[in-house]
Each structure stands twice: as structure tokens, then as C-alpha cells.
Amino acid sequence: MPLSPGTYLGPYEILAPLGVGGMGEVFRAKDTRLGRDVAVKVLPEAFAKDEDRLRRFELEAKTIAALNHPNILGLHDIGAHDGRPYLVSELLEGETLREKVEAGALPVKSVIEYGQGIAQGLAAAHDKGVVHRDLKPENIFITRDGRVKVLDFGLAKLVRPDESPQTAVTMTSPATMPGMVMGTMGYMSPEQVKGETSDARSDIFSFGVVLYEMLTAKRAFKRDTAAETMTAILREEPPELAETGWHGPQGLQKILGRCLEKRPERRFQSASDLGFAIEALSGSSTGIGSQAHAVVAVKRSWWPWAAGAATLVALTASAWMVGESSRAKPNLKIMRLTYQEGYTSVGRFAKDGDTVVYSAQWANDPIQIYAVRTDYPQSVKVELPSAALLALSAGGDMQIALEPQFHSNFVSGIMAKTRIEGGTPRRLENNVIAADFGPDGNSLATVRRAGGTVVLEYPQGKTAYETSGYLDYVRVGPGGAEVAFVEHPVYDDDRGWVSLVDAAGKHRRLTGEYSGIQGLAWSRGGKEIWFTAGNAGSDMQLFGVDRKGKVRQITAMAQRTRLLDIAGNGRVLFSGEDYREEIAGLDPVTGAERSGLEWFNGSGLSDISPDGKAILLEEWGGVAGPLYEVAYRKLDGTAPVALGPGAGPIFSPDGKTVAAVLLTQPPEIALYPLGPGVSRKLTTGDIINVDGVCWFPEGKRLMLVGAKKGEGLRTFEMDLEGGKPEPLGPPAWQGEAVSRDGKRIAGKKSTGETAVYDTDAKSLQVISGINPDEEIRGWTADGRGFLIGWGTVDEAKIFRMEFATGKRTLVREVKLTRKAGSVSRVQLRATEDGKAYVYRVRRDAGTLYVADGLE
Question: Fewer beta carbons within 10 angstroms: which end of the chain, N or C?
């Protein structure tokens, strides 16, 4: 008897019937353990003891479970109730493709989107050796948010590599052999109609029939009788699209024709190839973002930036052959792989050396993972949520960063494992910056942030090295006993060097310090570690260093280049990049909105003056030296004034002096007067790393966040008249802003919680309602709350928040409409009244290239 609402099948409560199919009844149910609605498919009672049907049901469940992909119906569970087996899958909300085409032909854009999803789902199934054999509009579901799901692999054929076509067992019956016709009339391939052996190319023919129906709302081979329909499939061609009144891209007609070839060898030979062809029609890979402007109506001409990016393509490709020290072979070849506008993150060669998997943020899209072939440079998105690539094994396993967070020089996130063909990622670890597989494809090196330190683990779970700065570009050596990485002494600053740690935990620094270093990989053969780095005034060059620390320059380049990977055959993957800062704001005196407030191509926005009339820049491009350069600039558009070396500059409360960090060893604090006076330096005692500095309100003391050797970051107090810095507050707390009376300091605990330290009571009070990714920009004038800064890669806001009530008032907001290449959070500075503000956008336009012939 049918299951009634309220019946329990294990933990699943039946809610309502959804439908009946040849393989069973389907019900809507509630998963009482996880509190979610699911679909439950139960074998009909009349067939519960039919061994053949039971076997088909079990095989269907195993097949769906093996096909873990976003475009295939996901299986959650399988069980039995009163002798009746059931399977539990995701509950889909939407409609079948049949319901859509019955309403008429679909728009070309929808056809391309749905076609991509179907092809990607089939490709994932075919990679597992599964052929659907019953693809039709009824078995394709479109969810309410436009996602495609391929359903019902009940007729699928599981082909194992060790089976011949004559002995392959079908999912329908153990006795099904060549000569039996399986499938749905009108959607079968010619070989299915003839009862011959069919493979993945049969699904491609059926896809062509479905594609024709989406475009025309007509069935390609439907005739009055089954015999006539079968004859049409074997001998006739459907009417040309133009004959049906359809007008669209000719590329679709070509794809359709190739899918519907009568002979399998003349069709697309894989669903992946079919997906590539459809992707090429989408236009998603060649679109150019619209011009950028902010909601606050700051105007800027963006064409010089675009022209610079175009020039980069030519300069970077030729620059690899510049310089006497280059040891490139005469037959050096460089191939361009990407043509979109945006930021490239991490890239890896697949085992074949011809496929590249990478993550990028193209145009206005979120960061995604893509695959591209060197012999056909058309990128295809891997069906995953927004994620950044971390690592790729030779076997096709991927470690990715979910919920990716952009920092100044890297992307971090929740590390998860998945496959190169896509699928549901399995979450493993939080706050991961970098990862790499060992040569066995199973062991894993990871870099993650843990409180105030960054930890390298290899193998995962065993600490090999840690630092108060950060590490990235971690790569396991060919033998699996060594791990190379780039080490940065200051968090979120890309100055640093190449380091190596062995299996015994012995750490060695292999190179001197570079003012910018990003990109690292082991050379072919593993005798050297190649890396890209540069010092002030020069763009990144390609170097190699051996285990003894001997460095050689491999190439000189005219533009910034970042090494991503080296394949086993010696191919080099790199990103040619145009990197720049863009700063704009509002002059409170004239009310004029000004752009172009940056100085050279590395202008970091550090502070806005108390009266809102000027800003401080931390410049690391152009004329800046290895210690960077501090620049003072008024918002009236006058030229910037260089004050001297330093990083993280900040105005004194009266706006007359600037304090900045000197990135020397040991670090120092520089004080620059903005009027008459002499600049001076303050020593920091035994502190080896200073991460930031802030003024006390009377202007006679500084608060700084730093670390002593072997310790994590903490807060210190420093008198301007001399004396070494003294600890301030508890160790696991970092101060960010001092109140106007100097008695309270707002900061963050290592847990991310905001907490206020009372200097009189020596107590710490946690303040609720502030997220870990929000920054304390200052105290309100009345001392009742904070100015809170928050930003993403495309917007930024400043709020005023009251302690007592938690009430927030928006002070200023900026939103970008052009997001391409925005690689870190938009920085926004504003006065408390919001009448003066300035914001910074950091853009990194990357293009992927592959080079053959470098040694």
C-alpha cells in the first residue's frame, strides 16, 4: 500500500507523494537528523521480491552515489523499510526540461547554459565509466536558481576497463547483451536502435536530440509510428534550424550537426569536448567588464589601465628572452592560455602536462576554478562553488579554499578536498593559505593561520615550522622529504625569501631578502627551486636556487611575472601581471571628487588626517626603496610629498607628525614632522617584527603591535622620549585604536573577538556585535563607541557603533561596479562625520602563459 504522510523510513518522515516512475515511487520527506527536506524513492511493493528489480535498484543507487557532481542528482542515503529498499537524494525545486520546452523554444542564452550543465554532468559520469543511455528532457531537471541536474541513471551501463563490450553488464538487466534495444524512442542513438554496443558517444547523440528540441520546441525524429521513428534515426536528418524559423549563432548549428552524426566516430568523442565547444559560444571568456565607478560617484577614466594591460601581453611574452643571464633554449616557445580580464591566483599542471587547472576572478564573477588545455586555450569552469585552488595531485585530487578571503598578497579559506572534474567538496581545515600534495598523492603540506602565528604542517597535523609573519607557495620536493616555501617576516607584506625545511624539522633560509617575492616551484629533476622575486625599482624576475643557497637569474623580464608551476616535462606555467593601486576620494574643502590620488603603481592607503584634508600613502612602487616610502598628499590634488622610508604611516592626533615603521632588522619607528622640525628614529628593543603602530591622544606615546623572537604578536606601549617598549594588555590581544582619553584601547583577541583593555583597571572587556573581519578604525568623539571598517573586494563601509545598544549608523559607503582584478579588500578611510573620505582599490590583471625551453 502507498506510504502515507507521517510514516517513518528510518530517520525520514514521509511528507507527501511526488510521483511514480518505472523504478519506484518518489516521496517528499523530512530528514529528522539534519532538519532538511529530501526526496525518498521506494521500490513498489509489487516488485519488492523481484530479484531482477532489486538488483537494478541497488545498482542505480551505487551508480548515483559514485557520480558526485553538481550537475547530477546527489544521493544522500540508502536503506530498507519492511523489506522495501529505498534511496534518499537531494530534493529538487523547479521543473523538468520537458515542462520548459512544452512552453516553446528556449532563448539561446538558456540553451547554452543548460547545454553546458548537461555536458558537464555527462562528462563526470563518463569519467566514472557510466553511460546514461536514456537522456531526454524528462531526465533533465532545472532548479529554481537555474542549475541543471541530470536524473535517472536507471538505464545506465557501467563499463569497467577490464570488460569487453561483449561482456559488459548493463544497469537494466544482467542478461542484456548487444542486440537488445534499450532507451526511449526518439532519443536513442543509431547504434541503440540497431541493438549494437553503445558507449559515451550514444549519450552525445541523445544530447543532440535534446539540444534540437530546446532550440525549436520540436522533436528531431518523431514520426507517427515507432518503426518510422527508428528509421528516421537511422537514415534521416532533422530539418535545418533555419527551416524551423530559428535564427541564432551558426556555432550552435555546427555543434548540433556534429552531435547528430550517424557514425559515432564522427561525433564529439567526449562530453568534455562537447562542453568546451558550448563554452566557446557563451561569451563568458571574452567579455570585458564595464567601466568602474563608485556609488559615491567618484569618476575616473579607466582606458589607460586597459591599454596598459594590453601592452602587458606583448611585453611579457617577449620579456622572457631579455637579459644576458637567460639560459633559454633557442627554440623557446611561449603560449598564451587566458584572454579574460581579471586576477589569476594559483595554477597547476595536470599529470599530462597539457592541461592546466587554475583559479581566477574574471570580470565581475567571483573567484572560480577553471581548466584549460594548452592545445585549445578555452577555459572551462569546474563545477564547484566559488573557490581558490590550493593543490592538485597527479591522480586528479584537488585541495581548494572554500569561502575564499582576499588578502593583500594571497587568498585563504576553508580547505576542502574534491576532484578535478568537480563534485561536492569535503571540508578539512580552516584558515588555510597554501597547500601541496607529496609525490605519493596522499600526504599533504599545509600552511594555515593559527591564532597569531602561521603554521606549516607536513605531513598534515605535524608542525614543521611556524612564524609570526606568513608563508605561502609551499611545495613538497620530488623525494617527499623536503618542503620549500616563501617566507615573509611581516603578515600581508610580500617581502621575504625562500626557505626549506626537511623531514627532521631543520629549517634553512636559502636566499637573501627580496622586497617582493611571489611564486615558487621545484625545477624539473628537483635540483633547484625556481622562484620569482624582485627588489625596489625592478619587477619580479625568474631565479633558481640550489640546496646550498647558490642563486642564479634565469631570465630578466620587462613586466611583473609570477611563477605558478613547473611540469614534469619542464614546461613552466606563469602569470604575467599588471599590478597597481587606484585611490580616489572627496576633498572636504572644495567638495570636489578626485581620482588619481595614488602616486606610483604601489600606493597603499594608510590614513586620513583628522581634518580630512590629506592622506598618507605607503608607496612600494616607482622610486620607493627596499624600506618603502611614506608620502603625504592633500586631497586638493596637489602633488604628493615624500617624507622618507617607512610602512604603515599614521597621523598624530594633532595632524602635525607622522609615525611609520622602518622595516629594518631590528625594526625601528620613524617620526616625520609635517612642518618645521627634524625627523628621528626610535629603537624597538628586542622586538623583531612590528606589525602596526598607533598614537596615544596626547601625542607623547605610541602603541605598537609586534613580536619578540619565538613569540606571537602582542601589544606594546612606547614612550617617544626613549625607553624600550613595554608589554601592554594580555598576550593574546592586539590593540587597534586608543580612546580619546587614552584610558581604553580597542583591539582583537586571538579568537577574533573585539575586546577593550582598560589601562587603569588592567582588565579586558569583550564587546559583542563586531565580526572578526571588521576593523576598529577609531573611537567616536564622545567615547561611546567605535568607528568600524568593513570591506570586501568590491565594496567597503564605515559604521559608527554604540557600545550600550549596539546600534550602527552608516558613515560612508563605496561600491565598485567594475570588479575585474580587484584582489584585496577595498580600503576606505573617512572622518567621523563622513564629509571627507578616500578609498583604495588594488587591482592585479593576470594572464596565464606556458613556456617551453627554459632551463
Answer: N
Which residue from 550, 534, 186 is spatially nearest to 542, judged by alpha carbons?
A: 534
Q: Are 364 and 289 in contact (CB under 8 A)?
A: yes
Q: Which of 9-23, 55-69, 545-559, 796-810 has the highest mean pLDDT?
A: 796-810
Q: Peptide bond before 425: cis, by omega within 30 degrees of 0?
A: no
The cell numbers describing 225, all together, are 509510428
Query: How far is residue 617's CA from residue 595's CA, in Å, rounded to a whole number?
Result: 14
What confidence score (pLDDT) does residue 600 get? 86
Residues in the chain: 855
pLDDT tier, 766 (very low <50, low <70, confident <90, very high otherwise): very high
Furthest CA-CA distance within the chain: 100
| Catalytic residue (choose from 134, 152, 472, 565) | 134
Question: In this model, does residue 292 exceed pLDDT 60?
Answer: no
In this structure, the number of other CB atoms found within 10 A of the CB of residue 556 comes to: 17
Q: Residue 231 is inside which H or E element, if any? A: helix 226-235
Burial per residue of 812-850, b for 16 or more beta-carbon CB atoms within 10 angstroms, e otherwise:
bbbebebbbbbbbbbbbbbbbebebbbbbbbbbbbbbbb
* pLDDT band at residue 557 under the 50/70/90 scheme: low
- Please enumerate in sequence order all residues whose Cβ is within 8 A of that of 806, keeping only pairs 6 or more positions apart, or say none: 768, 769
Please say whether the beta carbons of 327 and 831 come within 8 A.
Answer: no
Using an 8 Å Cβ cutoff, are 705 and 715 in contact?
yes
| Cα gap 344→360, rounded to integer Å | 4
Written as nine digits, the cell of 181 is 534495444
CA distances from 782 to 357, 741, 776, 786 (A): 53, 10, 16, 10
Q: Residues near 504 by Cβ (< 8 Å), separated by ≥ 6?
A: none
DSSP state, residue 784: S
Distance CA 41, CA 39 (A): 7
Cβ neighbours, 10 Å, residue 297: 8
Contact (CB, 8 A) for 690 and 667: yes
CB atoms within 10 A of CB 623: 11
Dump pLDDT digits (tens) for 462-488.
Answer: 999 999 889 999 999 999 999 999 999
Task: Give yes or no: 493 in active site.
Answer: no
CB of 389 closer than 8 Å to CB of 398: yes
Radius of gyration of the chain (CA): 31
Q: How far is CA 630 from the centre of its chain?
A: 32
Task: Report the amino acid identity of residue 691.
Answer: D
Cis peptide before 249 (omega within 30 of 0): no
Q: Give the span between the Cα atoms of 706 and 734, in whole angstroms.
A: 9
Query: What does pLDDT average to over the chain?
Result: 84
Query: pLDDT category, 115, cuts 50, 70, 90?
Result: very high
Task: Give 347's strand partners.
Answer: 358
pLDDT in tens, 694-711: 999 999 999 999 999 888
- β-pairing, 733-738 vs 426-437, is unpaired
Domains delineated in the chain: 8-90 (3.30.200.20), 95-282 (1.10.510.10), 303-579+846-852 (2.120.10.30), 646-845 (2.120.10.30)
| Residues 578, 560 contacting (CB under 8 angstroms) | yes
Grid cell of 142 as nine digits: 532545472
